[in-house]
Amino acid sequence: MVNGALPNSGELYVVLISTTVFFTFLAGFIIYFIVLYQKRQVQNKAEREVLEGNFKQEFLKARLEMQEQTFAHVSRELHDNINQVLSFVKLNLAMINDVPEPQQTKLNENRELIAHVITDLRDLSKSLSFEHITKQGLVKTIENEVNKLNKSGLIEAELIVKGDVYPLGEQRELVLFRIFQEVVNNTMKHSGAALLNICLEYIPELFNLTIGDDGVGFSANSLDHSRGSGLMNIENRAAVIGAVAKIDSSPGNGCSVNVNLNLLQQKISIH
Amino acid sequence: MYLLVLLLATIPGLARYKKLSKAFRILTILILCTLISEATKKVYGKIYHNNMPQAHAWAVIEFSLFSLTYYFLVIDARIKRLILFIIGGMVVLEIANVIFFEKLTQFPSLILEASHIVYVIYAVTLFRQMLLSPTEQSLFKQSLFWFNINMLFYATTMFLNYALLSYFIENKLDIVPLVYFALVINLIFYIVIGISLLMDNKKAQISAVNNG
Questions:
Q1: Is A36's CB within 8 Å of B164's CB?
Q2: At what angle do helices B176-199 and B143-170 cross, to 10 degrees?
Q3: Does this model's pTM top 0.80?
Q4: Chain A residues touching B164 at Cβ < 8 A
Q5: Which residue among A4, A34, A38 places its CB closest to the CB of B174?
Q6: Which of A76, A162, A166, B125 could connect to A201 by a Cys-Cys bridge, CB 3.0–4.6 Å?
Q7: Interface pTM, i.e. ipTM
Q8: Which residues of A144-179 are buried (b: 16+ CB within 10 A; e: fewer)?
């Protein structure tokens, strides 16, 4: 202690004012920092979400491209190699004449079976081939698949096309067709449905693909891993082309998959 | 009271030492050293009737440990190098201070004032770093925030205290209120350090750096 004098009112004011100014400034700085930090946090989170979204999109695209390359390779192999070998086998069988009648009948049956396998493989090769799908267009390719399903006798499929058909773009049509294949595959494997309704709706700047069945249906909570990831695949594929997939199902009420592609919104977001 | 608060602030640091990040480990050592220094200062004072030589030594050690804490908190390599340079500079300043300005028997106010200015710079630099790479964790749950705001509060308030102290001395006024004011500021400072030691988590900081 220097001495015991108390400050007079003037000195007290100096002390009080300087202390008040100091603490006001300090509190102001702290509040400003907190507000700024929280603003940055929100901004950072939004940026990270955009980056993660872009990364996910690119990752999905790359995965689909790889898948398409594999499909194209398998398709070529089926068409150029296996189909050729089978055709050769069929030709060889046709050249065998000097055999007794019962064996000849067996040979003819085998030739027919091989011819059937060749047709099936050709169809499979076409459904896998990117070029074939883009060349034929979405409606024609789905129509072929529907015919195949009806021919198989496993399920009764009906295709309805509403509106004036217009091209959606190679990439979009290919993805939509792969979604269609995935849904049909799931229906055949799990639903036990007798009826399959496919509806392609072409409205200007808006496209809708709806696939519904009258199968056993399911509840989202009861899905096993493979089926759950199959449905996730549908949603992911749709997201790649900027579409939204909606899956509606409940036990005993079948399943309906709707893919909605808003072309106008995509044009706006590009611009 | 003061020693008790120091002891209470040291306990969470020592108890959670392995869970703490490097910077907060240094801080724990610093608080422990402060406790020892404050305890021995009283004994030293009683024996030699002047504990200022110890205050001189402690001013430099305290500054070095706080600087090391910031050294581990900042990311920028240039600032890290600068902190090491400042520690060296402060040692030189203390030697010069003892030789030319404040002898070993006098209070080392020059070093303490210089230290507080540097602490403010450290705190502002760390706030800038926090703003440049914000983490997802709530600001109020971050030990870094509490430590840094505490440092800013302590350094600036103590600086104000020194300013008022010199004004009071010049005008021959009663300095007892300022002594109590400084004591309260010190108590708040060590309590908040104890809280930040309780909050700090090495793993959370690593993930925050990765996210940032």
A1: no
A2: 170
A3: no
A4: 15, 18-19
A5: A4
A6: A162
A7: 0.85
A8: bbbeebeeeeebebebeeeeeeeebeebbbbbbbbb
